Amino acid sequence: MAAFPNNTLRSFKPLSPTFNSSTVRNSVLARNSVSQVPSSTGAVSAKEKRSFPGKPEADVVVIGSGIGGLCCAGLLARYQQDVLVLESHDLPGGAAHSFDIKGFKFDSGPSLFSGFQSKGPQANPLSQVLDALGETIPCASYDSWMVYLPEGEFLSRIGPTEFYKDLEKYASANAVREWKKLLDAILPLSAAAMALPPLSIRGDLGVLSTAAARYAPSLLKSFVQMGPQGALGATKLLRPFSEIIDSLELKDPFIRNWVDLLAFLLAGVKSNGILSAEMIYMFAEWYKPGCCLEYPLHGSGAIVDGLVRGLKKFGGRISLGSHVEKIVVENGRATGVKLRSGQFIRAKKAVVSNASMWDTLNLLPKEVVPKSYLDRTKTTPQCESFMHLHLGFDAEDVRKDLGIHHIVVNDWDRGVDADQNVVLISVPSVLSPDLAPPGKHVLHAYLPGTEPFDLWKGFDRKSSAYKELKAERSEMLNSSP
Fold it and tell me: What dotted CATH number matches 57-137+297-379?
């Protein structure tokens, strides 16, 4: 989830969000922000350092310290490459960084995790990288979240049977039948989905080179276990999940809406925009016996800290406040980068960009960009912005069973990807009390990639018009659920 990009708002004011009938009182601080696609190349830049610390060269220079950049850099360092990560911000982590205000520690982005405690190919890909770096992330486990839907408010539990009770009460007997039909159809495919880890899942023919050779034995074994019907269905893994829904003739409105919501929570798109392998992997994790969700103790920043520790453990370096202005290309090869300060950092083997494809395009000399990449960049749609609210508040009089996650859907008919329709609320201090001072909680509420950024273009962030728009657009966050 994005934070700190082009249009970040840093004003503080008292707010009083509510959860069900319990009112959160005496808010102590709040922070609203609107963010576009995250950028590691200076959308928000720390004060530029005049002199670069350390050796101004490396085998591989990585632009941006987002999760992807840190994973790449850490693994390269693990396998004896001299790696240097350059980060424009004064904190590592990109959209997943954490920040502190007055003793409150806030997650800027992701808050829903699973698979950290698993081992082997089925583990969370981040967990696999951390394991390779010799790092572990202690987690708190939980098995439910609150949902506020047009049909009603209820505590939704993961697991193979609990959700049937919710369907029977808040949807219909037909919804129960269709949910069972869906699980019966896709769970036999889970062996193949789990044998093909998310690290290798791609929606193009490149999956053949990245996965076929390495995972052939486990895939073959899984096909044998599934039998003819399951093996035949495995051909659908790299197709949109909506095709499986349609092939099963699932028509219950609640089931289709719920599946869209799960896809949206997982990948920011509805079921017609997500690969079946990803959804089946998630179903296997969330609807198997004994399953649970996890939250990293000390916040999502603990993941970033673990990746940075692992990078440094193997000799990798990271420089914060180092804004990359351009990638230097000589004789058709990236030979380094130029910082805003004017200093040149040499890359003896490669330059890796963890910036977005649009930011990366702006870093490259125009004459070296292949037309195919330019065309793909122009035709690839950007997601809308995120509207964030970060809040610290008194825990007194707050219900004891508050729970970490609260998901609000205002109107199914508008679609889960409609603006101001779905609100995600996380109170991670419920599971990790050290994120807030004693007797306090931290809250992160946001509109997940559905805030139209065009509304914010051209505003002076110090103007009264900007503040009025911020108050207007964030009102639903202040009052949800």
Answer: 3.50.50.60
